[in-house]
Design brief:
about 325 residues, alpha/beta, Rossmann fold, 5-stranded parallel β-sheet, globular
Length: about 325
């Protein structure tokens, strides 16, 4: 990453941001990261996040250095490999505390930006609202501390590399839990219908979703060249999404990547409503299908709200999308 603001040595002030979560989480935090860059232009901005997100962090233009950090699920890392003097500013973009608050406070930062929590009374921050949209939440946190932030500042530059399947419909059946996975047979019917109209369809999946991707490809009778299972490298994955005709997925990281690249998308929402994690409202390039009610995001079977979305509804939503601008 860029070293234009130093590497933590000398008199360069440092700003540490904790967001040790996944792809969609980092993308939802981009507006806040850019707001911090504008507010602290002379600081070296260090982002504590998983190593595999390094290229994406660099693409935001708001991060100088990635500090590898992760924990299972949405847990807080037990420690950070921070060296040298304490950060001048530490920002908790990970959660509402107290574990994330205490992790940063233990480093002795000059200032700590975080939401208020009764078990960390020394931190005077704004209240946490559970029903707030993720992008809006972190921008509101920063505004409370006097940092101007725009939740619409979320676009990423087009990747330098070519798409492995330009103009294709990208179908991504996986999600973070079974509760958020639309049935494979419905994805397959959509894929078959789109291919019958003469359009290319490719299917993608994460590192642990090879079997899921293979099953969908078999049901939809996709050729091997249109199957990207096992997790594409992030740069190639980003190029695939940026060059796609459209993206069809559940509420997971690829949906946020489509928004970041202004690629038309249909997001199948459930059990969490789009008001908390969905695409920007009013943008015709992105449609979020949702019937409610809200359910358990950690359930072991597809949520009833997700099952209310039919194959025909998904196809109609894809048909209504505008053509991509690329």
């Amino acid at each position: 990453m860029s070293g234009s603001r130093g590497t933590g040595g000398g008199d360069t002030p440092r700003l540490l941001v904790l967001r040790a979560l996944g792809l969609g989480d980092l993308l939802a935090g981009v507006p806040a990261l850019r707001a911090l860059r504008r507010a602290f232009p002379q600081h070296e901005t260090v982002l504590a996040a998983p190593e595999e997100l390094r290229a994406l962090a660099e693409a935001t233009g708001a991060v100088d250095r990635l500090l590898p950090a992760r924990a299972p699920g949405r847990a807080v890392p037990p420690a950070l490999d921070w060296t040298g003097p304490p950060p001048d500013v530490a920002v908790d973009l990970h959660g509402n505390g107290p574990p994330s608050h205490r992790l940063l406070a233990a480093l002795g930062p000059g200032r700590l930006f975080a939401f208020a929590h009764p078990r960390t009374p020394g931190i005077e921050g704004p209240p946490w609202y559970a029903d707030e949209h993720e992008r809006d939440r972190w921008c509101r946190l920063l505004r409370w501390y006097g940092v101007a932030a725009d939740s619409a500042d979320l676009r990423l530059p087009r990747p330098a590399g070519p798409s492995p399947a330009p103009g294709a419909l990208v179908v991504h059946p996986g999600a973070g839990s079974p509760a958020r996975q639309w049935p494979l047979d419905r994805f397959a019917r959509v894929a078959e219908a789109v291919r019958a109209r003469g359009h290319r369809v490719v299917v993608t999946g994460g590192p642990d979703e090879g079997d899921l991707v293979a099953t969908l490809a078999e049901r939809a009778r996709l050729p091997d060249t249109d199957v990207f299972g096992g997790g594409l490298p992030l740069g190639r994955f980003s190029a695939l999404v940026a060059g796609a005709r459209a993206v069809l997925s559940g509420d997971t990281g690829i949906a946020h990547l489509a928004v970041a690249h202004a690629t038309p998308s249909v997001t199948l929402c459930g059990p969490i409503p789009p008001s908390r994690w969905g695409p920007p409202r009013g943008d015709p390039r992105h449609t979020a299908l949702w019937h409610g009610p809200e359910g358990d995001p950690h359930g072991h079977r597809p949520d009833p709200a997700l099952l209310r979305i039919s194959t025909e509804e998904a196809l109609d939503a894809l048909d209504a999308l505008p053509e991509p601008s690329h």
